Amino acid sequence: MRLALVQEAVARIPDGATVAVDGFTLMGVAEALYEGIEKSFRATGHPRDLVIVHAAGQSNRKVGFEHFAVEGLAKRIVGSHWGLMPRMSAFLGQGLAEAVCLPQGQLSSLYRAIAAGRPGNLTRIGLGTFVDPRIESGKVNQAAHDHAPDYVAIEIIDGQEFMFYRSFKIDVGIFRASAVDQDGNCSMDEEAVMLDALAIAQAAHNSGGLVICQAKTLVARGAIAPRHVTVPGALVDLVVRAPDPERQHRQTDGAFFDKIYISASTGAELPRAEFSTRLAIGRRAIRFLRRGDIVNIGTGIPGDSVGPALAEAGLSDKITLTVESGVYGGVPAGRVDFGITAHPTAIIPHASQFDFYNGGGLDATFMGAGQVDRQGNVNVSRLGGRIIGAGGFIDITQSARLVCFCFTLEGSHEKFVDRVDQLTFSAEQSRRNNQDVLYVTERAVFRLESDGLALIEIAPGLEIKDVLGQVPFPVTVHEPIAQMPEDIFRPTVAPFDLPPRPAAKITTSKGR
Length: 512
Known about the structure:
By secondary structure, the protein is an alpha/beta fold. The protein has 13 helices and 29 strands. The strands form 6 sheets. Strands 1, 2, 3, 4, 5, 9, 10, 11, 12 and 13 form a 10-stranded mixed β-sheet that branches. It has a 10-stranded mixed β-sheet with strand order 19-16-15-14-20-25-26-27-28-29.
């Protein structure tokens, strides 16, 4: 390991390199290095034609991954989500770089497969969606269809279909750490999330590549306890101290550093959420849960409303909330700080969280929806022609017991459509997985059935025709129709309880 200035580290990145970068919204983002790459390219034309790989979206709509939206700098972007990147989304939409969208959890897990020398990931995640090679192969613009290699394939094992995500070489790995000692050992004690730093470093090192760490602070040899070392110094080639940590190494977009995001609860009551239509949707959605459920929440309405709805109902300690970034417990932040919680109970690596999700550990997930069609399919990844990406949506919605889509019917774009523009959630695959799927809005609740959607609840004061008038296709109605709880539309709700989870059934392999 050696110390380097930003420009020295950037000069070591070869043209045409495959570069893996870490981050989640603005957490974990090596902003000083991203800035340096853009600045170097604009001044010298190098590094250029990069293949930049990122498991999660990395921006606050202004900086972070947005630095790479420069023609010629990136040849190909392989990532999961560009929803908080207006420049990058437009850049990819214009075909100025090849755009390959793969599920967040699969990319995160793929770093470990590359590090271990495995050929790739074998999983059911992605079947029936736009990532399926029989549909779009995750190639979400024409440039990718014309030039990008195939990152996925279908494999048949014991008569069952699986998605195969292929490994590839990583030439440069970039991550950041709160503190780095004289031997290059890296600590993330002040980072709000752990993410993929270790896996990226191992994958780049074992690919014969370069590993660069951005440090917030430099500390003496031995100052970091061995158990607090996230990435060993033996894996790190260059360490760059952020010249302006207040701006380039923020814990989150909203805070340079706040202990609330890395400390357990002190018992202090968090502020109550103000009433809104979004909160009403979250209030309805949480009543489908059971005590003891382990739950994931997505960005948008779920991220903004489910945590506050549980808190005001006195249910925060009855449900375990998780976010795909690796966070357990606490009250989640929303918007550009999505991915962290106030007073978490645990923070684990990104890929480990997806191992749990993909293996069926989630009792429920709450997700947004951009479009819903007559089959019950959902699109969140391409809206109005804009390339957004799926993030962890595909991993999570294909493995949770209960999938609850939360969205408002208000707005300029129609939510119910005859056919979705892109297949991010496959209703057919969900039926094969025997999942319970709900669509919760401020006016009504629908359920996925064998032949499409069924209307199961309407808001107080509405008639069935008021709801069906907003749906351009036939919907099953089971009369008498139930009414959504009246109190979810009031400024406050009284605490209530949830039904218990069924007792676990333990089975044995009987000799297998």
